[in-house]
Amino acid sequence: MSKNLLEQLRSMTVVVADTGDIQQIEKFKPQDATTNPSLITAAAQMPEYQGIVDDTLAQAQKDAGAGATQATIVKMAFERLAVAFGLKILQIIPGRVSTEVDARLSYDTEATVNTAREIIKQYEEKGVSRERVLIKIASTWEGIKAAEILEKEGIHCNLTLLFGLHQAIACAEAGTTLISPFVGRILDWYKKDTGKDSYPAAEDPGVLSVTTIYNYYKKFGYKTEVMGASFRNLGEITELAGCDLLTISPKFLAELQDTIGELPRKLDANKAEAMDIEKISMDKATFEKMHAEDKMAFDKLDEGIKGFTKALEDLEKLLAERLANLDGEAKVA
After folding, report:
1. Within 10 Å of residue 254's Cβ, how many Cβ atoms?
2. pLDDT tens digits for the chain (333 residues)?
3. What is a GO molecular function of this protein (predicted)?
4. pTM over 0.70
5. What is the dihedral of CA 322, 326, 328, 333, to 10 degrees?
């Protein structure tokens, strides 16, 4: 009897859950889990996770001390909430969780490094080894340079919002642990740019981009892992079977689990090693030139940072409202 697609995918690729919903992680039991500001903001609004939010706010209020302003308490809680979700997730999964640096720091190397160190400190204070945490950083030149510093300190990084080969090469040369090229967002851009409604899975621009990056890494022996992310359809996932990791939403995890059929391996390190691929020497000037020439990568990186920034601002508002409610409940009591 044929196995379902999820079982077969797991035999050749590490499956990661792309969600902040702890119940979904318990259901699908992935190796790793990754979150982002949008996912944390969505999870924080679910009634079943109100306890995590309230506990984080209460602890921040206590630590801030008497007389602390609402803004101070919210800032402290905001900085801890992603870690609070990460700690819950790590109780379920055997592997690593990705926790994101504030997207508003994407062009500030020093601030990114300092924030990443603080996130790791919070995990370690709760008894979690840094080996089980990936710090998510946007793939700007400044973010990649921050990751280079952090990796030398044993702080492992997941470079996100990655759309172009130039970003991937810079990440590999910086020695980052992992990259997350965004398959579906690349498809979105091409559909809008060309006016085409759809692409066959094997010709999907996002699939082709990740395939190119994967083959480049394997050809030149880079240790940085490739984790395809942000999928719009099942075909994008099956066309990347064999990729180091794939981070998949609960919706597509369920679809893979419910589909019986053969899943052939599409990406193969041994085949990539034999390919004729030109090596590109990467420095800041080359990165900036290639980034300016790649309109899709330029547009999607900028859009992604703005989108994550808005999610963070929404989360701050949510925390401020919840803190006001908690204070009101305390006065009534």
Report:
1. 15
2. 679 999 999 999 999 999 989 999 999 999 999 888 888 889 889 999 999 999 999 999 999 998 899 999 998 898 899 999 999 999 999 999 999 999 999 999 999 999 999 999 999 999 999 999 999 999 999 999 999 999 999 999 999 999 999 999 999 999 999 999 999 999 999 999 999 999 999 999 999 999 999 999 999 999 999 999 999 999 999 999 999 999 999 999 999 999 999 999 999 999 999 999 999 999 999 999 999 999 999 999 999 999 999 999 999 999 999 999 887 776 655
3. transaldolase activity
4. yes
5. 160
Among 63, 62, 40, which residue's Cα sits nearest to residue 52?
40
Annotated active-site residue 136? The verdict is: yes
DSSP state of 203: G
The catalytic position among 29, 88, 126, 136 is: 136
What three-state secondary structure class fits 177? coil
Crossing angle between the packed helical segments 70-90 and 50-64, to the nearest 10 degrees? 130
Backbone angles phi, psi at 191, to 5 degrees: -65, -45
Ordered DSSP codes for 126-179: TT--GGGEEEEEE-SHHHHHHHHHHHHTT--EEEEEE-SHHHHHHHHHTT-SEE
